[in-house]
Hints:
- The structure holds two protein chains of two kinds.
- Chain A is mostly helical.
- Chain A contains nine helices and no strands.
- Chain A starts with a helix and ends with a helix.
- In chain A, 47% of the residues are buried.
- Chain B starts with a helix and ends in a 6-residue tail after the last helix.
- Chain B is mainly α.
- At the A-B interface, helix 2, helix 3, helix 4, helix 5 and helix 7 of A face helix 1, helix 2, helix 3, helix 4 and helix 5 of B.
Amino acid sequence: xxxxxxxxxxxxxxxxxxxxxFALLFVGKQxxxxxxxxxxxxxxxxGKAADFFKFDWKKERWNLIVVLGAVxxxxxxxxxxxxxxxEINPDVADKLETYGITSTGDAYLPTExxxxxxxxxxxxxxxxxxxxxxxxFGSRYAGGCTSGHAISGLSNLQLPSLIAVIGFxxxxxxxxxxxxxxxx
Amino acid sequence: xxxxxxxxxxxxxxIVMYKSEAASWFRIYEMxxxxxxxxxxxxGSALALGVIGTQIxxxxxxxxxxxxxxxxxxxxxxxxxxxxxxxLFGLGWALxxxxxxxxxxLAGAGFGSILIVIFGALLGTFVYGILxxxxxx
Lengths: 184, 137
């Protein structure tokens, strides 16, 4: 059964992501996941608060169906296609241990942050909400996220996407190197 | 029929995100620590094929189904918008360990706490919409 539950190597996963992007281009759409957040705000009535949310969200219905598929894909993978553990570089795992994260190698997400017990800790709750907030705010400000800029935009040799991706890494490196030591 | 196509593409995307471990917080952290080639290999190989395929599409003027133009419009140039927005996104990506695609995948995988991250992302999107006219673009 291991051939089913083992993770896929990068040289399988990367080309499959390119395939997904081309499949969407072929049906006349564009690969981009964060725009669904804007659509969801519009459906929730955010158009009353800002013009940014006044658009015909029904035109974006197709992407919400892709999201529904992603949810199904996550369900199928976690329940039938994976042993739900992730092995990473042992040196990185050691560093995480100094931050009090010891579930490396035993879980798909760190139980110290994503376990239901951790939700009673205000610090963890803040990490989840603030992390999400920056992802939502930043992706809309930058006009795209990993899928829209790092995959679709860079594939189309767009300089704006290169600037955005450089920004993604500046932000990520600041978080890991300067802010993690303060919060963990 | 079209709905089914989108559903299949989305499901396939969800499986690829989960099975490649690109949806794992651990892999994102390891990437920012430059601890493994894995994530760079995924993005790099997707891009290598993406660039070649997009060039083939453009040079041969290939059309989408129904003869429509493919969605390959150039993006408007700006530095502050992409740089500041990108940095803010990166801070969140490294803190929550999830970007928008994997968030939905993890919700399906049964991680209840990711719903809080998604709530935060919706809130961030909403606040951006409110502040948009006051931000440098």
